Amino acid sequence: MGSARRAGGGDTPEGGAPDDGGGGPGIQWLAGWEGWFAGLTFARGIGPRQLAARLGAAPGIHPGPLGGTAAWSMAAETPDGDGVARVGRWGGWSFAVEHGIPAGADRLAEVSRAGAEAVHLDPQPDHPPKQFAYARDGELVCCFGLGEEGWRGGHRPDFLLPELVAARVLAPDGTCPHSEDEPCGPRERVTLAVLEARFALSLPRHLVEDAPLPAFVTRTR
Question: What confidence score (pLDDT) does residue 179 get?
Fold first, then answer.
């Protein structure tokens, strides 16, 4: 995969990972990636280190740049309930790749406080389906499982209904028009395409998988 294009004439944004200025591969590729085990939290309106702090980064514990394998190893050695977040910035969003228990699943409203926005994608490898949640200004706006878009939560559960209907993921009444026996893979990709377009989300696989990024131990309890 090609290297990221640096924004601002060669400046590297806070957090270490260069910003591509809005381009990149999107997030649809996650649907077909068998190696998706880390939670992903995106935040707009705050920097990568602020994102780590709002995810519960332990003060004074900053292990330095880590790739995915090293982060998984460190997460396995943390006390129960802790994880390791590798952070950076790409396509106008700060992001955290969360190894171990993803703090973003429970702290998304906190991440989005004071006018920020936050998106969390959780692969849920042991308890499908994959999960999506969106928060803004301290409030969980909407959430649902990929492949289970007919069951939506949050303060505005129908926030993405027009886009999901337009993509034929849902019927106009908000129900799922597909058979329960239909494979989830194609539907997951379509829903990720909706999220990609609605929130302008993009994150290359190499940043998730193996790029050395600033890392923090996050406490979820």
Answer: 66
